[in-house]
Predict the 3D structure of the following.
Amino acid sequence: MSVSTAPTSPARPATLDDLLRVEGKAELLAGRIVRFRPTGYQPNRVAGRIFRSLDEHGETTGQGVAFTDSMGFGVPKLPSGRESFSPDASFYVGPPPTNRMKFVRGAPTFAVEVRSEGDYGAAAEEAMAAKRADYFQAGTLVVWDVDPIAECVWKYQADSPDQPVRFNRGDQADAEPAVPGWRMPVDRMFP
């Protein structure tokens, strides 16, 4: 989730169409394209394992679609200025875009944010809390904050955002009510 901002044209704010032309992972915040640094080995492996499990669940149940890193979700402009999300892994229950080469219009039902090397410390905690608030305001039901160093998952729910549930090794993590019936062993997330 480590970010770096890139200037956009001062003549006009960037749009979702501009974002579609950006190479690599980025999001649209307050008319600016915010690029994300490439992730490291462990965070990428963790996100990949979560995606694979979600994808299998979606295919088995026919209820929702899993997405990998860099999937764009365009949302109406939030008070924070955010107009898009690009979680590390996600699950979406809703209609596909009319043009399947474009972003999904709407928030992910379930979003996974896997911490990268720079996602620790007070400033990172504030940024992640602000992003979670944006997710919930946009309509996401559950957000996971996955910590590859502590090897745990924090589950935040829209209806109780200040009461996270911690899943540790030996636990079965869930994303209820966003992904009914899906569970993933925490041990399986961390190679």
